[in-house]
Amino acid sequence: MPPDLLHAIQANLLSPAVLFFVLGVIAALVKSDLKFPEALYVTLTIYLLTAIGFKGGVAISEAGLGTVWLPALAALALGAAIPLWTYPVLRFAGKFPAVDAAAVAAHYGSVSAVTFIAATNFLNQVNEPFENYATAFLAVMESPAIVVGILLGKRAASGSSSIWGDSTRRVLHEAAFGRSVLLLVGALIIGALCGKRGLTMTEGFFVTPFQGVLALFLLEMGMVAARRLGDLKKVGIFLLAFGVLAPLLHGCIGVALGHWAGLSLGGAMLFGVLAASASYIAAPAAMRLSLPEANPTLYLTSALAITFPFNITVGIPVYFALARWWNS
Asked: Is 93 exposed, middle or buried (0-12, 13-18, 19+ CB in 10 A)?
């Protein structure tokens, strides 16, 4: 293993966010009575989404739309495209039922906000600059894959080539105005309108406590992930391999696309992280609503118990090394 990559992995593993995640895993494995009230978990989620959206909007106002539009469009296209090639892999190579393949594909095309935040923390630790408006990519990649995955699943479940109807309209409404998307996009717009002055006014709430809130959230996520470790034997070796190899492939594509769109080394690495991440907040909620026949053990275990731990421990330094290699 190259020394630079080894150092990057070590720095990432010793970050507070990752260590709190590990503490959560340990708490669940030793069957501690530690648990978060549901209301607190929801509150932490709302805070993180609002804070990253608002700060991203401020960065957009400073950079200007002329700088942001090309990488944002590339992010939108990539988010919509990932389910289109992961679906047939899961369907035919993995021999998954069509609805389950569509549900898992939607998770891998959508994104993980917490993985993105962990990646920005990593870049700050290694003193690598990046575009502050990268949050815009997070916002635009959240929904397209969910919509594509649900449409694939609906078509398979109906056995018809027709995918339009009242249920589809409800799906599109949920994907566009669900809690995570509404908070991210809404806060992004508010931040863009308020600019630097707005960030100065809210810095004591959206900036200073952010790392502490993230640590608490990852403590909870560690417990949630550990509780699903028992499901690994149910999902089989194929999904275990998919949960590691798909992020690596998508991370490579994301890094290359980020460089093509003119992003810096750090920005391209964040683009790769977003492409490599899998949603475990917005996508599961959408699947429960729109594809209730899909097996949650498959999509939750792959996204939360395989890909998420892999990305925040090993994946992030690997995508950073890829971005450095591409930039050399």
From this structure: exposed
